Amino acid sequence: MQKSKHERNWLESLLPLFKQYKNMKHPLEYQNRYQLVVVVILSSRTSDKSVNVASKKLFQQFPTLASLSITTIEELYPFIKSIPGFRKKGTWLIELAKQVKSDEDIPRRQKELTTLPGIGRKTANVIMSESGDTMEGVIVDLHVLRVAPRIGLATGTNPEKIEKQMMEIFPQKYWRQLGMSLTFLGREICRPTNPKCHECPMNPVCEYFKSNQ
Ligand code: SF4
What we know:
Elements: H1 10-20, H2 33-42, H3 48-61, H4 65-69, H5 73-80, H6 86-100, H7 110-113, H8 121-131, H9 142-151, H10 159-169, H11 175-188, H12 207-211
Helix pairs in contact: 1-11, 2-3, 2-8, 5-6, 9-11
The structure holds iron/sulfur cluster.
């Protein structure tokens, strides 16, 4: 009889994937935690590349959260107008800067991070993952949302439910590696159309691959 997703040793099955992406660097460019928060908020539903281009001049003009907190939305727009949703994202950034005030005061816990404008669970998980903080969840971005159900790690399309299912399967100390590895797998191999299954390290256990043989 086939094992259920909880009976299968998923950790063992994913170790090759963790190894493959162990030293991968997040494509968003940042130098400190203030910059990390800004680029992650700006990157929602747009490409990391466009954020990296815009953020260079943005950080020259606004090098700290404090400098961002005293700007006006009109002064900020020219730096982010190439980013989809820039009006909403710009408002969030200034409001967040006013609330937090200094770079050192950016929260390190998910509960506090998610009270800030523009930061939901996924954004908080990315910030915590990149900061090396103790993970309190698993990153479920658009890639993970697609890849995890394909493999059979989770079911459904609700990001929070998918995150919860994976948190139940994997010990907490693997949550960072899990989210990042699945994200990279989705970016590089498990694309929305024509996933490159024959070069994927997950193909021995992947339910999508097995059902398409
Ligand atoms: S085997 Fe194919 S469908 Fe499964 S995770 Fe890899 S690329 Fe995606």
